[in-house]
Amino acid sequence: MLHSGPVQPFYFLGNSTGPWLIKTSTAIIGAPIPEAERVTVSGGIHSPLQEENQWIFKGVVSNHRYTNRDEKESLVAVQEGLNRPQATCAAMILIKKSEAWWELPQDERRAILEQQSEHIKTGMKYLPAIARKLYHSRDLGESIDFITWFEFAPEHEKDFNALVAELRKTREWEFVEREIDIRMVKETV
Amino acid sequence: MLHSGPVQPFYFLGNSTGPWLIKTSTAIIGAPIPEAERVTVSGGIHSPLQEENQWIFKGVVSNHRYTNRDEKESLVAVQEGLNRPQATCAAMILIKKSEAWWELPQDERRAILEQQSEHIKTGMKYLPAIARKLYHSRDLGESIDFITWFEFAPEHEKDFNALVAELRKTREWEFVEREIDIRMVKETV
């Protein structure tokens, strides 16, 4: 049976105690975020304390906004989950899109995202090596619109670099006004 | 220039001091909400106090999820805003849809909502008499998914009744697992 309780947020915390050690934190577009040493991802109902973290970003796993039936079934058939033992590398990409993007009607956002930019198709090419989870932040009043969390084995880092390079050349990315790219390795304290 | 700050929530408060006097509060589907005398709609960053209100529902004005370019332009051309002096009647409809709805891919939700149920087209028939504003609540962790607020003049109450009766007969409504219908008149204390 499907869970039908209220949607719960996930918190992404930049701190000194998390299991993910930050290697690089790069502002690709727009302003950087404060420095932190490590990252914790925490689900649940209790808000984390601001003073214990260099930064906090919040997001929810929500319904798919663009994926159609065929794409969803292809994704589900091929993708793997987070927390695979060999996937000791992670990346966290924070994205804020422009007001011009959000003002577009649904059909035009879909056309830019997939027909023009092949966002879903490009992500699919790198499955199952690059596991991916999308969190929505905009409606929560956050300063960014999306958090995407990726996990992969060290030998697939070059594939991940190719994936983000492909996406950054697309028409969709012309609507991105802030992008932060944080790379991590798993190293439990 | 478009506002580009963070999205702010709106609070819908059931209390004894608001400008909208409740005439009826009806659970159309599922459990009712606690009784209250009046309603306040409050935008902004400060959370209201639980103890001062019989109930609190929170929602955000977000991007359009289904509307295409033609529909959006037709809506913008015809619709009128809230707070018209003659619109002394209001209705607040709280909706929760099933997990089966939220699991559907985007193309199938769109097909049910418009091709099969004519949700957008039906709302359009009653413009500009019935003004409407949609607030999204699901991703905020609320117990309901949507708050829709309507305002109309007393002579259009029969039209509003016809509008909700039409929508409640649709395929889309088979996915509604809770619906509360609150009717109000403006009567500043």
How are the SSEs ordered, and which strands pair?
The structure is a homodimer of 189-residue chains.
Chain A: E1 10-15, E2 20-29, E3 38-43, E4 55-59, H1 69-78, E5 89-97, H2 99-103, H3 106-116, H4 119-125, E6 131-136, E7 146-152, H5 157-168, E8 176-186
Antiparallel strand pairs in A: 1-3, 1-4, 2-3, 2-8, 5-7, 5-8, 6-7
Explain what you see:
Chain A is built from five helices and eight strands. By secondary structure, chain A is an alpha+beta fold. Chain A has one domain (10-186): 2-Layer Sandwich (Alpha-Beta Plaits), CATH 3.30.70.3420. The A-B interface holds A 2-4, 6-9, 60, 62-69, 71-72, 98-100, 102-103, 105-110, 136, 138-143 and B 2-4, 6-9, 60, 62-69, 71-72, 98-100, 102-103, 105-110, 136, 138-143.
Question: Which labels suit this protein?
Answer:
homodimer; 189 residues; alpha+beta; Alpha-Beta Plaits; 8-stranded antiparallel sheet; 5 helices; 8 strands; 24% helix; globular
Instruction: Report the total helices of chain A.
Output: 5
CATH architecture of chain A: 2-Layer Sandwich
State the shape of chain A. globular
Main pleated sheet of chain A: 8 strands, antiparallel
Explain briefly what this protein structure is:
The structure is a homodimer of 189-residue chains. Chain A contains five helices and eight strands, in the order ββββαβαααββαβ. Chain A has 189 residues and is of the alpha+beta class.
